[in-house]
Amino acid sequence: MPTVVDTVKISEPQLNPIFTQHFVYPFINNVDTSLIVKLMNKNVPMLLDTGAHVSVLPKRMLLEVFGLPVEGQAIRQVKVFGGQEILLDGPLNLNVIICGLHIVHPFYFVDAEIPILGGYDLLRAAHIVIDTKSAQAWSEHPDVANHSSFFR
Description:
This protein is mostly beta strands. The chain is built from 3 helices and 10 strands; from the N terminus they run ββββαββββαββα.
């Protein structure tokens, strides 16, 4: 005679993956971590520098490219690689779009021929992920997923 067997359903944990999508931005070349950003509504190359604590512009660029005054700014003394101390002017809060994220970020400036440096302060504020193997970067900032300024 057949018997009735009670079956117990064991609930399995539910997988609820979080869907993420990133706009990926390629580096300009395979030599360094430079990419094109929009700074004060102008497309410019920026070197992403994880060793720089702050973001820095060459002083001549402020006047020639962006038309901003360079006089009357505060001065900050910093140590560069190798221990040498230099003086930076600023900061100036500038509009930047990096990896699809639009933010206002402080930039220092120096009277030297250097590339625009996106320092660790900017990389952290914009939640930038650098993928050296594929030579690209993207932002994991929540504002990129919610309302990307990429399309503005």
